[in-house]
Amino acid sequence: MGSPDQCPSIISRSQWQARPPVSTPETLSVPVNYTVIHHGGSNSYCTTQTACAAIVRAYQNYHIDSNGWNDIGYNFVVGEDGNVYEGRGWNAVGAHAPTYNTKSIGICIIGDFTSLLETAVSSGSVPSLRVIIVHTHFLADRLPNQAALNAVKQLIQCGVDSNKIRSTYQLIGHRQNTASSTDCPGNALYNEIKSWSHWTANPKSVNGIQIAGEKEDPINDAA
């Protein structure tokens, strides 16, 4: 593992009460060349360990029970409590980005970081007529808080220091995977990671093969 100064607080699977994988996970060949950033794509946020752990359990339940996957799809999940939650971890192939699964660490930040519609209803009147007025507009894109962003950066550096991620890794957002059709990780978060070191606009082609029986996470597809 990397040095204590570089590694964020990582909540183990037992601490967030994870279910065991359905079967023995495929071993990930490390160090990997890619780090893929995701968002949860649902309007659920958390700033406490109790709340974040509950959302991570919900992700895992959905991936296993609805998608028929072996486990939660991500290698790690990050909450706005500043903690990292161990998913498949450093040494197991994830199910988060087709063609990149066998060559990357997938990190998901809890929440939805794309534009949301806000609707407000007001009323007015004209002689003999009551008028209902509906105002609809897009909210500004919401970024994860600084605690979550710092935890992601520290986790990546921890992976580099512990030889799980190559020092020359390429950082991408899920939407850059040409095998996907998604806005993940949301406009705000995607624009943020574009300013980080190692982000690449044109990742090299990947010939990895997606895990048999697993597919892209529909939570992210909806984002």
Automatic annotation (TrEMBL):
**Which InterPro entries does this chain map to?**
Amidase/PGRP_sf, Amidase_domain, Peptidoglycan_recognition, PGRP, PGRP_domain_met/bac
Which residues span the membrane? Answer: none
The residue ranges of the Peptidoglycan recognition protein family domain are 8-178
Q: Which domain of life is it from?
A: Eukaryota
Q: Which residues form the N-acetylmuramoyl-L-alanine amidase domain?
A: 20-186
Any Gene Ontology biological process: peptidoglycan catabolic process
- Disulphide bonds in the chain: C7-C158, C46-C52
Q: Does the keyword Cell cycle apply?
A: no
- MF terms (GO), sorted A to Z: N-acetylmuramoyl-L-alanine amidase activity; peptidoglycan binding; zinc ion binding
Q: Name one Pfam family in it.
A: Amidase_2
Cite the entry's keywords alphabetically.
Disulfide bond, Immunity, Innate immunity, Signal
**Family statement drawn from the similarity comment of this UniProt entry:** Belongs to the N-acetylmuramoyl-L-alanine amidase 2 family.
Q: What is this protein called?
A: Peptidoglycan-recognition protein
Q: Which organism is it from?
A: Coptotermes formosanus
Lineage from the top down?
Eukaryota, Metazoa, Ecdysozoa, Arthropoda, Hexapoda
